Amino acid sequence: MTAATADRPWLKYYGNTPADITVPDMTMYEWFAETARRDADRRAVMFLGTKFTFTQLLAAVNRCAVAFEAQGVKAGDSVLVSLPNIPNVVIAFLALNRVGARAVMTHPLSSKDELRNYATETKSRVAVGVDMFYDTMRSVVDATGMDKLIVCHIPDYLSPIMKVGFKATKGRAIKAVSYDDKAISWVDFMKAADAPTSYVRRIEPKDGAVVLFSGGTTSMPKGIELSSWAFNALAKSMITLKNLGNDDSVLAIMPAFHGFGLGLCIYTCLVAGAASILVPEVGTKSYIDALIKYKPTYIAGVPTLFRSLMNTPKFKRVDFSGLHGAFSGGDSLIPELKRQFDDALAAQGGTVEVEEGYGLTECVTGCALSPPGYYRPGSIGIPIPSVRICVVKPDTIEEVPPGTEGEFAVLSEQTMNGYVNDPEATAQTLRTHADGQVWLHTGDLGTMDEDGYLYFLGRIKRIIKVSGISVYPAQVEQILETHPKIKTACVIGIPDDYQVSSVKAFIIPMDGVVADEALAQDVKAFAKQHLLKWAAPRHIEFRSELPMTKVGKVAYTDLEKEEAAKAAAANAQPDR
Questions:
Q1: Which of 196, 201, 271, 465 could be bridged to 62 by S-S, CB 3.0 to 4.6 A?
Q2: Would you say 187 and 156 are in contact if contact means Cβ atoms under 8 Å apart?
Q3: Within a 13 Å sphere around the CA of 180, how many CA atoms are in the beta-carbon half?
Q4: For residue 303, pLDDT beyond 90
Q5: String of DSSP letters for 386-423
């Protein structure tokens, strides 16, 4: 890729950071193994008091690869991995890459229907699950004809004392697993492995290595096939950008089934020689406890998590004096929330600011980041090294001038190989531009200013047409959440006899705020002050909570279904 600043105006904010990187021509296992040999005795993974050195982790990965092969897994196969952030998920992920099999990463809370779909679409032969969801996983294995279910237990890698403590508390609610020829425990699975043989490459760096699934705001997420090359490109860019090294540690609370958690908090961390701190439960308490105990140098989260942290008194006990970076992704970070969290970091010894990122699973995760010291309110940042982003007229490859609304298109080494079993959708998303390069069309609407700063407006499919005017829900939500009495807002379009569609806002008020008609009128007046009249909500509904996706975003499609059901019921004619 060219390094011409004229084509990439954002480079002026890079300082000494190189504009481009060279992607390591290795599989993920090979890069990890190289790092493990270099940083042998340094800590690689920390988990509830257990520490793996790189030597120990590499040995576990090698043994696990042999164990998979003993179960008949070979290069080109797919294995369904449905685990929380426990050591087993890191070991299995890298071991499958050594074998040359695809790791199909899924949420352990996925429904039976979702898991059946994932297994069927990827032709998974073996599944790896956790004991607390054994019944669900077993039914899926039986229904799809998979060969084996490997069952992990949270205490698999805990110390004896911690195992006793877990069994006496959370473990009490977990039903014992009855093993048979179809199901094997992780411990027995690993014990059955012969001594690892010499490594032989069975997969090329650009071959499909991982399947992740899109965020879940649609009825059935798409399977996205990614290569070692894509993960390596992300890792090298972020290591270059942040100078991540073996004195660093990253708090991995973002889940391993998500590109943010797997690509940045686990894989990038490990190949940099840094320590990945695994947190198995995504929640405010577990996050704060890990911050206090481990004092990580890098943290990441979604905006809703950051807001929740600040609303918890114990958060004030966290010492951020050793923090090197804080990243927000997964959803829009409103400027006021960023200001509040930056202030909290500074008050507790921090010298960094929250950097908002932008990305999508089709390029593993982040491809843009707000440069520290050069934040622009409302912007999601500038492209990271070796990534180019342009704005095109939707459904075309025609670039539009700076400041013009259009669709983000990304040119990157991080790009997916394609959607699983969906060549038509792949062709619509990966398009060859006039420069001969294949660009990823994101489906996201926004603008880019003359300096290369990106501004996100919303999904192309998430536009509300009010009297013919385009209203972007994400933009409305950002404005509403600046209201001092609003904690969370979600906006959808509902049918309107006069305007075709009108805006309805679902709102969670701040703690202690009375949700009454006076507040509704206040919010409507506030919206009219800050938004075009077509974008100001005509309808407001207060809620104590909102439906959420598995990665912490508000599930607006669930609200749309609720409203559609209400409309259908209202329009139904009585039987005669």
A1: 196
A2: yes
A3: 6
A4: no
A5: T-EEEEE-TTS--B--TT--EEEEEE-TT--SEETT-H
Tell which phi-psi region holds residue 410, choosing left (phi > 0), alpha (psi between -120 and 50) or beta: beta
Q: Write down the number of H helices and E strands in the chain.
A: 17, 27
Residues 357/391, Cβ–Cβ less than 8 Å: no
91, pLDDT greater than 80: yes
Q: Is residue 505 within 8 Å of residue 489, measured between CB atoms?
A: yes
Instruction: Tell me the pLDDT band of 281, cut-offs 50, 70 and 90.
Output: confident
Q: Which two tokens stand for residue 51?
A: 């520490």
pLDDT band at 469 (very low <50, low <70, confident <90, very high): confident
Dihedral of the alpha carbons of 403, 409, 414, 415, in degrees to the nearest 10: 170
Residue 160, Cβ density class (10 Å: 0-12 exposed, 13-18 middle, ≥19 buried):
exposed
- Decide: residue 246, CB within 10 A, 0-12 exposed, 13-18 middle, 19+ buried: middle
Q: Side chain identity at 559, as an amino acid letter?
A: L
Distance CA 32, CA 27 (A): 9
Provide CB contacts within 8 A for 243, sequence distance 6+: none
567 in Cβ contact with 495 (< 8 Å): yes
Please tell me the pTM assigned to this model: 0.86
pLDDT tens sequence across 158-213: 999 998 888 888 888 899 998 999 999 999 999 988 888 899 999 999 999 999 99
| Confidence category of residue 216, pLDDT binned at 50, 70, 90 | very low
